[in-house]
Design goal:
Radius of gyration: 14 Å
CATH topology: de novo design (two linked rop proteins)
CATH architecture: Up-down Bundle
Distance between the termini: 13 Å
Number of strands: 0
Structural class: mainly alpha
């Protein structure tokens, strides 16, 4: 089995996203309840804040796919959602938004 050549760059971007979320104070030690994590809505918008979804669902799922050698998604709309969410908040979100945009670009690049 041939490793997807995007994996090292994607793994790096997942770490960059986590790092920037920590810097921006968006990282939490409080795990959301099981009912919140069980949402079936896109980005769990009905039960989680976007940054909670990134921390507790998106990042762990992507890391698991990489660790298990599972196929990676070929599209991602996370940058658009991040733009929508952070565009309504005060703060310097440019570094975090860039990481999400770079991630989307990497995911959509052919393996």
């Amino acid at each position: 089995m041939v490793m997807d050549p995007r994996i090292p760059a994607i793994a790096d971007h997942l770490l960059l996203i986590e790092h920037e979320m920590r810097i921006q104070g968006l990282w939490s030690d409080a795990v959301p309840g099981a009912d919140a994590l069980a949402s079936t809505e896109p980005f769990s918008v009905d039960r989680l804040e976007f940054e909670e979804w990134v921390q507790w669902i998106f990042l762990p799922k992507m890391k698991l796919l990489i660790e298990q050698g599972q196929p990676l998604p070929s599209v991602s709309g996370i940058a658009e959602m991040a733009d929508h969410v952070f565009g309504q908040r005060r703060g310097n979100w440019k570094p975090l938004l860039k990481h999400f945009k770079d991630f989307d670009l990497l995911i959509s690049t052919s393996a």
